[in-house]
């Protein structure tokens, strides 16, 4: 399974939506994912890809990880996977 499909699956599960309802342009807010849900999603993503996401739940705006849209989250995860593989 590719990164995008897996991330969408995790976010959809968190939002209680079908993966088909989650688009790259969706924001966590639009999906109905609150800050706790976002933290749980990030933990699930870290586990799925065996990576560590630089996300501070207490100060998300100060994180090095862009969570403004599904596409940005996927891009960030792909970058972390590439860095880990390097």
TrEMBL record:
Segments traversing the membrane: none
PROSITE patterns, A to Z: CARRIER, PHOSPHOPANTETHEINE
Coiled coil: none
Annotated Carrier domain residues: 1-81
Superkingdom, natural source: Bacteria
Keyword vocabulary terms for this entry: Phosphopantetheine, Phosphoprotein
Protein name according to UniProt: Acyl carrier protein
Originating organism: Thalassococcus arenae
